[in-house]
Amino acid sequence: MFLLSFSLVSANAVAQEPSVIDLQEDSKWIPEIIQRLDFFVDTTNTLDIKKVASAAFQEKFRQISDPHIVYENIADFIWIRMTVANHQQNDHYSWYFESWGYDLDEITFFSPQGDKGYFPMKAGYDYPFGDRDILHKNFNYFLNIRPGETKTYYIKIRRSYPLTFSFHLRTNDEFITHSLNEYFFLGLYYGILLLILTLHLYLVVKLKKNLYLFSSILIFSSIWFSLGRDGLGFQYLWPSVPSINTITNFSSLTELFVIISTLLFSYFFVKKYKENPKLRSLTLAAIAIMVGMFLNQNYGLVMDAIPYMIISFLILLVPFTVGLRSLLSIGRFSLSYTLAYVCLFLIIAHSYTRAFALFNDPILNWYFVHPVIIVEMVLFSLSILNQIKYLQEEYKKANLEKTTALEEKNRVTYEMNNKLHQKVKERTEEIENMASDLAQKNVTLQTTNLKLEELNTQISNINQYLKENNDKLRNNVEEITKDMALMKGFEFEDFKKVFPDKETCLKFLSELKWQQKFICKKCGYNKSTESRNHGRRCKNCNYYESPTADTLFHKLKFPIEKAFYILYLSNRKDVELTLNELSGILDLRRETCWAFKNKIALAMDKVGHNKELSGWETLALVHLE
């Protein structure tokens, strides 16, 4: 009992002795003075400065031992007592009190005015920015303490979470130097982000792709996130609307925007290289879960910071891993994509530095996310530039293949022209030799008219023979051309050697359909890639078009190779098979043969088909539906 009484008396004795901050001669900056101050928690929220500053009340103050002061009593006012003794001789120094915790809901600084009591200066995140005496993003107050004076100041604080308090005393030159440096580097930081945002907005306007739209939203969300974290948004963008501070900072809305935009950007980034439906589902699921956790955190059961952060990491890790595996499966590992996700995890961790400190240095603990965001934006931009480079390489590769095909075609044409030229040359030499022989014979035949007439007769016969041969050759060429066009004389077994299966027919139909160029029927784009069954897939909207679409074989219900043969027979004038005969040859129902022959007849009427002048393949592209 005696020991307990002694302890209480000792505690009261200590409490009555206020902590004093001494301003020495060489002092210009006294950092982290929080544990050199005294505090009292007003659980009634009714105390005023007159009551708190009274001599009888001083024994209730206790010295602060933790930067958080207290973790509980979030809804109660905290009174802080600060006693400063100026031992300096230099009266040119002006001293300022500064709170780096700029996101206090309410702070009232009471400066002693002698017999007039205390002068209150109220500000905070719940009050317009213009209410502050010094228009700075942090809370700063002039101490007005002269050399040799000792003054006691009181600070009344209301907070919305157990933040880490960071109080400092600075001279005027230290305060100005620190402020200029801080605003300079923050200006540089936002300038870089705005330049990157401008680049991405240009890509949105120029290329009109979802990837660049979501990358722009991600950068904008990061800027908004930073403006809420460093206080510049409140100072310059919404100084008269303090309610935005709650939306921006305390509800973690900006953090949610950063997460959602990162997930969507990552999905479209991977999609540019490889389509992955599983990644799409996981991305949407991750977004839904994060939105649900956000709503629960703000309107339901609040989770502790560390479990919430760990769960967020695990949720984001799933789509990131699947996306990275998709890139690795096609040999397109992106280091910048991976590091950018790491930066996102650091941003999420930084969001909870209000609840626990990652570093001992308060400046590093608060501002380390700014260079991380810049690195993330630069890495994401590099990923986009690498992707654009990859697409350009693919475009060049396609052009190279096209150029190679044209060169091969030109080579074949050149060889054929050379052969034709050689034949013409040989024929010319033959005629020249014949002319030389005739000239020699004419010289010989000049001796006698009889021999001359005989020679003329021989020459006429030779010319007649050549003419007949030329006419015969011309008729043969026309006959061959006509046979080629009509494919005259092919039985079904012979026809099957040319078109043996569905694969061959689809390939032939694809080459015939797109021999000029490809035009997407959905968006009008003219670039495509060959897909399954020799179809074409638009490079712009991903629309797939089958070779049989909008042709005579559209919605065909029996083997296409048999339909080819029916079309081939329909173009022949020398063959007239009955439906029963055709059904037996092709092993098809008689009604099926009749229906398709009727469809061919409609196609012939539609285009005015001439069996003698046009091949059967011209009917293949007629669309009747």
From TrEMBL:
According to the UniProt entry, the coiled-coil residues are 388-483
Q: Which UniProt keywords apply?
A: Coiled coil, Membrane, Transmembrane, Transmembrane helix
Q: Which domain of life is it from?
A: Bacteria
Q: Cross-referenced InterPro entries, in alphabetical order?
A: 7TMR_DISM_rcpt_extracell_dom1, 7TMR_DISM_rcpt_extracell_dom2
Mind telling me which residue stretches traverse the membrane in this protein? 183-204, 211-227, 247-270, 282-299, 305-328, 335-352, 364-385
Q: Which intervals hold domain 7TM-DISM receptor extracellular?
A: 36-170, 182-384
**Mind telling me what this protein is named?**
Signal transduction protein
Q: Which organism is it from?
A: Echinicola strongylocentroti
